[in-house]
Amino acid sequence: MQPPTGQPPPGKRWHTREDSGIRLDASLRWWHDDEPILHPKIIELFNASLVLDDAGRYQLRIGNDWCFVQVADAAYEVRTVDVTPDERVSIRLSDRTAEALDPTSLLVESDGVLACRVKQGRAKARFSRDAQYQLGQLLEQGPDGGLLLCAGERRLPVALSLDALAASV
Question: pTM (2 decimals)?
Fold first, then answer.
């Protein structure tokens, strides 16, 4: 047995808070050292523990422990779209939080998935298939041909086009 040298063995690396080896890919899948994380409870824990720090870096914060993680694109998934009693559109995210949807931030990604800005516009969220369907149920064509987001009696214009939405189906 060789004495410790302060360096990891060949083919291995130390994991630190700054270099955890944990990443979230563009399809919202978690990885550790290029191995997929598949256990549903770990995935849910990571989703619920992901935070954006004041410097704009993503961290996993679990109890008193934390580490930086790499986020390839969107950090959150929109899981549910609701209309609140005060006629606002609310979204529930993969981190178990809810917030008002900013309809001006809606866009259709190149792969046809809807996305929006969340966390005071500091982060991106991609819609799940169910949430995208739920949002679609709230859209109607306005008199000028544009799309309106309908929440009770409220009608808000959105910068999505029917052509972009049709291409995403």
Answer: 0.85
